[in-house]
Amino acid sequence: MAVAFQRKKPHINVGTIGHVDHGKTTLTAAITKVQAEKGFANFLEYGAIDKAPEERKRGITISSAHIEYETENRHYSHVDCPGHADYIKNMITGAANMDGAIIVVAASDGQMPQTREHLLLARQVGVQKIVVFVNKVDAVEDPEMLELVEMEMRELLSTYGFEGDETPIIMGSALCALEGRRPELGVEKINELLKAVDTWIPEPVRDLDKPFLMSVEEVFSIQGRGTVASGRVERGVLKKDSDVELVGKGPTPIKSKITDIETFKKSCDESRAGDNSGLLLRGVKREDVKRGMVITKPGTVTAHKKFLVSMYVLTKEEGGRHTGFHENYRPQIYIRTAGESPSLKTTLLENKSGLLTSRIDEAAAFHWPEGTADPSKMIMPGDNVEMVCDINNPLALEPGQRFNVREGGR
Ligand code: GDP
Ligand code: MG
């Protein structure tokens, strides 16, 4: 039955992660089946979600499926990827933007290398809450095995910075749910899982509710009025006469007050996330404001010259480097509007990732974090690494800030 949804429920982005063959796609199909019976989804068969085999045959690489379903309280968009590499790319580039994730672990195998890698990835991209589905319980005789898997998963979650002791763990069988067998392991466990997802994964703070931030693209002075900085508002709402700080480039933030706001060339009382606005800054000289600075609610953002990054290195096939590199690598880094030129912006925005918006004047330098066992280790195309990045002038940065690095146009 096709259902016309009214989008009145809060929307949450989730996804299945975990080791290959542990049952992510089967679980995704099972969720749509169970919710379809309540009129909350369209049932999608396994093959409709994981189109990988046939699409690969035709030479098309697919990287993820976005599935929709509802519960009583929420509307979900759910991402399921066919392979490990697809998770890395989709999660790091933000294409698979998850507010929370369901990690699937087969009771018959327990945690495996990709279980751990996906937890690390989830942490790297800022996923706060995880729900565990221990799958294939139908294929396990020994209840001690289940206890062991649960214990190990709690430990693993804690290791990766999640709340291991409190995280809901549901044990069941996606296949039983999909095939309508053994409801005590099938449909009932899917219902339990969705209840856990509904309650454990919080509704994300919307951009409008976050503290105001606009990255400065252009600066000009208006005769008799003062300095105006313009750009696209990334988040929050700013009212006329608010106090602000200009953060970045210099060692300390510059304090100011917004005495007028122009959005789409009209004077108005407020500026909101998504607007292109010009902000008239009281008591600030034109030469003090630089592209790449951010204008924020005071005290909400700080500037940094050294930070830990998670970086996926594109392969040659993806348009990246052909060879590896060592630490002390110095490519150019792109964060928000820093150093951007209008022509550069055009080319960058055409990039599929949609994340490239800017350039910092100086090169960045990448190093292995302190205590790395083998600092002479090479970083190869296709690697997902954590490194320390240094830049010359401080920039407004916060955990989860996206960036891109380029080198010779790659
Ligand atoms: P993915 O790679 O994590 O997406 O795993 P799939 O969903 O493709 O499942 C891998 C294999 O495990 C398939 O052959 C499924 O039929 C099987 N499978 C999935 N869930 C269960 C389950 O609950 N019990 C059993 N016995 N097998 C399952
Ligand atoms: Mg799959």
From TrEMBL:
NCBIfam families: EF-Tu, PRK00049.1, PRK12735.1, PRK12736.1, small_GTP. PANTHER family: ELONGATION FACTOR TU, MITOCHONDRIAL, ELONGATION FACTOR TU-RELATED. It comes from Trichoglossum hirsutum. This is Elongation factor Tu. It is found in: Mitochondrion. Residues 9-205 form the Tr-type G domain. Belongs to the TRAFAC class translation factor GTPase superfamily. Classic translation factor GTPase family. EF-Tu/EF-1A subfamily. Transmembrane segments: none annotated. The gene is TUF1.
